[in-house]
Amino acid sequence: MKFTLVRIDDRLIHGQVALGWTRSKGIECILAVDDETSKDSFRVSLLKMATPTGVKSFIIDQDTAIEKINSGSFDNKRTMLLVKSTKTLLDLINKGISIDEVNVGNLRNDAGNKLLNYVYVNDEEIADFKEMRNQNVSFFAQSLPDQQITDFNSIIDKI
Predict the structure, then answer these.
(1) For tag attachment on the chain, is the N or C end more exposed, with fewer CB atoms within 10 Å?
(2) How much of the chain exceeds pLDDT 90, in percent?
(3) Quick one: how far is CA 14 from the chain centroid?
(4) Is the whole-model pTM more than 0.85?
């Protein structure tokens, strides 16, 4: 399956995703994958409320996501894959989910190194990015569709 957009954003569904990305890409379905969040019914409810009208959202764990993706549940829909962390994205890739390009949104690790104004990563996250780069995943950083694109590959390659 080819996703319309794959994004890492530690906030998952919020204004930039709900209004900016879904509209600009014609997203019909948001697949938000995070094991911890999927178990918290209150957070799931909040994320569902943040989902724009006319867009379906699924806030699910990794195993369920892999099962749904592999079953073809999203094949005929313009789908955004949204993950909260590099670890989740790398796990999905290592479990056979095909991902070519990723939009890097907010990552705010308090103990992390500042790579961009909205991207702070620790050593483990840097290692995840590098491993994904070694698997031919390409990255770009862009908060909103109308903002400048930053080649995130060059940032990763210099670290």
Answers:
(1) C
(2) 80
(3) 12
(4) yes
